[in-house]
Amino acid sequence: xxxxxxxxxxxxxxxxxxxxxxxxxxxxxxxxxxxxxxxxxxxxxxxxxxxxxxxxxxxxxxxxxxxxxxxxxxxxxxxxxxxxxxxxxxxxxxxxxxxxxxxxxxxxxxxxxxxxxxxxxxxxxxxxxxxxxxxxxxxxxxxxxxxxxxxxxxxxxxxxxxxxxxxxxxxxxxxxxxxxxxxxxxxxxxxxxxxxxxxxxxxx
Length: 204
Fold this sequence. Notes:
Layout: E1 2-7, H1 15-29, E2 33-38, H2 50-56, H3 64-75, E3 78-84, H4 92-101, E4 108-111, E5 115-118, E6 124-130, H5 135-140, H6 143-159, E7 162-169, H7 178-189
Parallel strand pairs: 1-2, 1-3, 3-6, 6-7
Antiparallel strand pairs: 4-5
Helix pairs in contact: 1-7
């Protein structure tokens, strides 16, 4: 089976890239295939333009760069997003990728007359967020619940995709990163196992 791993970080030596590489390593160990979409290195344009708005209004077809990203997802059995937590959210680059790529007519169908219909029931999603604060801080402010509301439900459930793994790694700037990398490798190894396709989970 095939996974698309999307990483949004400008530094190739970042922990985000290292974690994405370890997810890929785990997939290789299980004889699965993968593609890594490095949005920064590929210079994906996250700006939601008038052309994108015309697509949403079903007045135009998606731009070529959006069609290419949609084809990447169509080739995949599962989608893995690896991202640092910026201001308690995902980076603008990744949010812009979602804004533009998960468009009306592809991720969902919407019109004022018929309402909304989900189109990505086949897609499974794994989220790996990398946080700088400690677990107590995120828990005290109910960030984990907010993350599920904003991303799991607000984005992917709206399109019919199912979030299987929702991980948030804590204290990334001061802790030894070896456990994070080992966890990422395990996620990749188990991505297409029964457990990896089971109910959504969240762990530190």
